[in-house]
Amino acid sequence: MPIYEFECRACGAALEALRRMGQGPEGLECPRCGGTDLVQKLSSFATSAGSAPSCSTSPTCGAGGGGGGG
């Protein structure tokens, strides 16, 4: 299940919750004021591709690593 971020409209507190995709803030409560008027925030995420070679050493990059010229 993904983690979604919500913001309380009453006091502005932010909270995170594990929710099913498409599930809103129903059943959640603000940890600061106890309010239930929550809005889902836009979240960012990061990915990691591991330890791929850098562009300057990759022969398929086109920015170095061989290749003739003239």
Write up this protein:
There is one protein chain. With 70 residues, the protein is an all-beta fold. It has a domain at 1-42: Rubrerythrin, domain 2 (Single Sheet), CATH 2.20.28. The protein has strands spanning 3-8, 14-18, 38-40. A three-stranded antiparallel beta sheet has the order 2-1-3, with no helix packed on it. Strand 1 (3-8) and strand 2 form a beta hairpin. It is elongated and about 55 Å long. The N and C termini lie far apart (55 Å).
Distinctive features:
about 70 residues; Rubrerythrin, domain 2; three-stranded antiparallel beta sheet; 3 strands; about 20% strand
In which order are the strands of the major sheet placed?
2-1-3
Largest sheet: 3 strands, antiparallel
Proportion in β-strands: 15-25%
What structural class do you assign from the helix and strand content? mainly beta
* Beta-strand segment tally: 3
The CATH topology label of the domain at 1-42 is Rubrerythrin, domain 2
